[in-house]
Specification:
Helix content: 25-40%
Shape: elongated
CATH superfamily of the largest domain: Isopropylmalate Dehydrogenase
CATH class of the largest domain: Alpha Beta
Distance between the termini: 13 Å
Number of helices: 11
Oligomer: single chain
CATH architecture of the largest domain: 3-Layer(aba) Sandwich
Number of domains: 2
Structural class: alpha/beta
Length: 321
């Protein structure tokens, strides 16, 4: 059986990503990994962390099968990066390197050579420059996809925010029947395809205890009728639930996915529960895009203490799919 390669983009070069990448190589998988990064940068970290287990197999992204791909070596597409032989702070100097890396990775995907794609963390401030709310939206725009969702995935419980990287004051404007249904449709399709099940989805309210002192209550006027509509369509949804109790053990075990109204409403409790044992999947794309659930983490840069669990689980998931 032939396994499609897993494309892994370095992302921000001044981040902990290459540290956790090298740690993740200790786990055996069947899919060959293709790293898109800087040769000089990779060699620096291999030397710094005394990683001598593998050699580097340089490959041409125009013909990734020109050389035999396997995980006995690190299959690398070298992208130029002006590396000064020391660890630098995150800055705009990384922008061209990251853009070129994404361009190469998405080109390989577009040509149908694989559907497995992982990107390392990026700095929204220095890379996205306020053009996109987050990397999820950046990739969706690059691939021409308008219907997508951020799923923070754990095998026991996943979460999906209805809105992602927008100010809290703008969240109520985005809460409507169309947006809620769109996210439920995407979640349901993903779970049926990759888990073989119809997911049980708990939908949260916006206001504390799903109550409001205002005349207009989004929970009563929008979310509750939408839940009833989705139930009539045959989806396993229920709610709205209060966000302060849904993640209690006896409550959360009733669901496969919890759909929240805004980013931190669901990401904060999930990360508290599972820490690094989760990863970010952009569902709705024509390929499987995953990002480890951590940022560049500049404070831990070069200290060799970062936890690779999220990346390891992301690689394992793609290896099976």
């Amino acid at each position: 059986m032939s396994y499609k390669p897993i494309i892994i983009i370095n992302g921000e070069p001044n981040s902990i990503f290459l540290e956790i990448f090298l740690k993740s190589l200790k786990k055996k998988i069947k899919s060959p990994i293709i790293l898109i990064s800087s040769l000089k940068l990779l060699m620096f970290y291999m030397k710094k962390f005394k990683f001598n287990d593998k050699k580097i197999n340089l490959i041409n992204y125009e013909n990734i099968y020109e050389k035999k791909l396997n995980n006995s070596s690190i299959n690398l597409v070298d992208v130029e990066f002006k590396f000064e032989k020391n660890i630098n702070k995150i800055s705009y100097r990384s922008k061209n390197f990251i853009e070129k890396s994404f361009e190469i990775g998405l080109k390989i995907i577009k040509e149908g050579k694989t559907h497995k794609f992982i990107n390392g963390p990026i700095s929204k401030k220095s890379f996205l420059s306020k053009k996109y709310p987050g990397i999820t939206e950046y990739i969706a725009r690059k691939t021409g996809i308008k219907k997508y969702a951020m799923l923070i995935y754990n095998k026991d419980l996943s979460v999906c925010p209805l809105t992602t990287h927008i100010p809290i004051k703008n969240v109520p404007k985005k809460i409507n029947k169309k947006n809620i249904c769109e996210k439920v449709f995407l979640i349901n399709s993903f779970y049926k395809k990759y888990r073989g099940l119809k997911p049980k989805i708990g939908i949260l309210g916006l206001n504390p205890h799903c109550e409001s002192i205002n005349k207009f209550n989004e929970d009563e006027k929008i979310i509750k009728p939408t839940v009833k509509y989705l139930i009539k369509l045959g989806y396993k949804v229920s709610g709205p639930y209060s966000a302060d109790t849904i993640f209690l053990k006896q409550n959360r075990k009733k669901f496969d996915v919890i759909l929240g109204m805004y980013h931190d409403q669901v990401l904060t409790p999930l990360k508290t529960l599972y820490e690094y044992d989760a990863f970010n999947i952009t569902i709705g794309l024509p390929f499987m895009r995953i990002s480890p659930d951590h940022g560049p983490n500049e404070k831990m840069l070069g200290k060799n203490i970062s936890d690779p669990t999220s990346l390891i689980n992301a690689i394992k998931f793609l290896d099976k799919n």
